[in-house]
Structures are given as C-alpha cells and as structure tokens.
Amino acid sequence: MILMVWLSLVVATGLVGCSGFFFGPGTKTSLTTSATNATYGTSITLTATVAPSDSAALAATGVATGTVTFYDGTTSLGSGTLSSGTASLAVSDLAVGSHAVYAVYGGDTNYNESQSADTTVSISSTLTATTTTLSASASSITYGSAVTLMATTSVSNATGTVNFYSGTTLLGAGTLASGVATLTTVALPVGTDAVTAVYAGDSAYASSTSGAVSVVVAEGS
C-alpha cells in the first residue's frame, strides 16, 4: 500500500532525479555525417544533435548536457561532449565496406538517454574526387529573412545529398539534381555567418566541402 502511494506521488509530481533511478524528460538524438560514401582513410565527421522531446522541458531546464558515444554496429568509435546540444567526432579508420553508424546520448541529471537511427556509411577503395562550390542569394539580410543557398558539384551526374552549415550548425540538407542542391533558410543567426556546403558523396563519387561564404545578418527593426 505504501509503495503504491509513493509511486502515485512520483507520477503526479513528475519527480526526476539521478539517472537510472528516476527518469527525466525524454530526448531525441539525431545523427548526420559529413559523408555517406568515401574512400578508405577519409576523415568523416559524425555530428549528433540531442533535443528534448518536450519543448516545455527545454524552457524549464535548458539544453541537454553530457556525452554522446558513436558506434559502428557494436563497436564504439569514440565520444564527444555536448555543446549547445551537439557533439561531434571525426573518424578516418572505417574499413572498406558498409557501416551502420549511430549515436547514443548517455543522459544527464535532467534528461533521459536516447539513441539515433542508423546511418549507413560506405567506404570504398576508390572513388572519383569531386569539388563543391557554394553561392548565396544574398550577402546581407535582415534576421528572419530567407536566403537561398545553392551548392554545385563538379560532376553533374553525382547523386545524394548536400548538408548546409553555418559554422558547425546544420541548417538543413538538399538533394542533388543535375549536380545542384539548394536550401532556403531563415535560420541564420545575427552576425557574420560562415556558411559551407558538404556533399556527402555516393557510390561512385567522393564527398567534398565548399569554401565558406559569408552572409551578414542584421537585427530587424
């Protein structure tokens, strides 16, 4: 009887505490890779983003902290420490073949652990090199205004996706069509943003990263 009353109080009050004893708000972990196809020895950056499942939890307790461990199947590749909700790890020793890579967030005193979906990374002994160039529809905008980013690969029949970044923050992705991928975003923060495009590669063509393009974002009136 006492146990049932105690459990009712826990459910009613949303009591949270130490990991493994009480459970905090849920989280969602997602994983992006700088390349999904690459030649052996290429450095690939794995980036995990951890977000609270409940926006109210984010407002109450802030972003998740702690570490994320990256795996290739059951093999740990290493860990990264969360900063502003993201953690990264560069790997260059994936063997030739297909790899099911995923990220596991270990939780903290406020948030539960969570695991991303698998991302397939294929490592080949030989891929054709590519280059990627980036342009923006405007070099200066007001905060909240849309800007269109256009990435162009050196090979028009390359397939796959291009990830667009402001510094290390992922803005979104676009799918290549005739060697071109675009993204329209309103997510650029105030200041001078260094925007890059990263082509993830495919089964025939290697990944490549554009040079940075500066977009100045001014505060709105």
TrEMBL record:
Residues 31-123, 134-218 form the Bacterial Ig-like domain. It comes from the Bacteria. Pfam families: Big_3_5. InterPro entries: Big_3_5, Ig-like_fold. Gene3D superfamilies: Immunoglobulins (2.60.40.10). This is Bacterial Ig-like domain-containing protein. The lineage of its organism: Bacteria, Pseudomonadati, Acidobacteriota, Terriglobia, Terriglobales.
